[in-house]
Amino acid sequence: MPRLYVVRPFDPWRRGSLCTCPFKYTVNPYTGCGHRCLYCYASSYIRDFFHPRPKERLLERVARDLAHIPPGSIINVSSSSDPYTPPEDRLMLTRRLLGLLSKRHVVEVVTKSSLVARDVDILSKARSVVSITVTTMDKGLARRLEPGAPPPQERIRAMSVLSGSGVPVVLRLDPILPGLTDDRRSIREVLEAASLAGARHVVSSIYKVKPDNLARIIREFPDLESKYRRLYFEEGERIHGYRYAPRDYRLRTLRIVREEAHRLGLTFATCREGLVFLHDEGVNCDGTHLAIGGRVKPGSPHR
Ligand code: SF4
């Protein structure tokens, strides 16, 4: 394959990872993200992460890469930073990127911002799916967990706008944080709001520890320190550079999400949990089946 500059195969470290996504490409219009989520994973490997900056000459480089990417490929926007991070309202870089990608490709947007609803005109004409992350409906808790992101109620409104225009919507209940958002009531509130707003699929996972995200969580929630040390370092396990909570805890909690999803008629999958047997038949974990009309085997192209 010729060298690709900014539109790259998703998850190059998938070998040996727990990713169950179909083969897809990914492009990040920004480096870094201003949502400043305490649990963010990307901040551990990108310098100065919480100061987002647009990629230089992005559209020119994307156009060059697209010449080598088969039409109809799934392209994720984006995986290492939010495509609707704060400067996007002024710069409209993601909007222009979507215009370019959506001509010949399937677009999967993943965001925590209600700003995505601004681009409903492009997304509703494209083969697209939009995943919106909501971790809690508690506005105060969300402000502490995701201080730079719009409140959950605004994200839910964005789901309504998109689904009302025919854009398939996925809820990312991701991550679930032990002791903060893992009780059935909290899970149910998020799923019910998303379902009413037209979401059709839920993908979920349990928070995984990296040293920097754990430090931020403990600084904000000092009472959680001993619980998290026990759960992640004494009882949990290390997988591909992350500390995971114990499998029985993850299984128990994700089964609650699955039950609540099914009660509401939503399909369900997990993300990098090694619990594929919980996934519903006929779905891609990331919800891209909603944009392409069916499931693709993990790692396979869909064409
Ligand atoms: S929105 Fe995503 S990329 Fe941005 S800070 Fe939060 S977790 Fe990190």
Would you write up a description of this structure?
By secondary structure, the chain is of the alpha/beta class. The protein has a single domain, classed as pyruvate-formate lyase- activating enzyme. The chain has eleven helices and twelve strands. It has an eight-stranded mixed beta sheet. Strand 6, helix 4 and strand 7 form a beta-alpha-beta unit.
- Distinct small-molecule ligands in the complex: iron/sulfur cluster
Q: How many β strands by DSSP?
A: 12
- Average pLDDT score: 95
Oligomer: single chain
Major β-sheet annotation: 8 strands, mixed
SSE arrangement:
Layout: E1 8-9, E2 25-26, E3 30-31, E4 53-54, H1 58-66, E5 74-77, H2 88-91, H3 93-101, E6 106-111, H4 120-123, E7 128-133, H5 139-145, H6 152-164, E8 169-176, H7 184-196, E9 201-206, H8 211-220, H9 225-234, E10 237-239, E11 242-244, H10 247-263, E12 267-270, H11 289-292
This protein binds iron/sulfur cluster (SF4).
Iron/sulfur cluster binds at residues 33, 35-37, 40, 42, 81-82, 112.
Offer a concise description of the structure.
By secondary structure, the protein is of the alpha/beta class. The chain is 33% helix and 16% strand. It has helices at residues 58-66, 88-91, 93-101, 120-123, 139-145, 152-164, 184-196, 211-220, 225-234, 247-263, 289-292; strands at residues 8-9, 25-26, 30-31, 53-54, 74-77, 106-111, 128-133, 169-176, 201-206, 237-239, 242-244, 267-270.
Throw out a few tags for this protein.
303 residues; 11 helices; pyruvate-formate lyase- activating enzyme
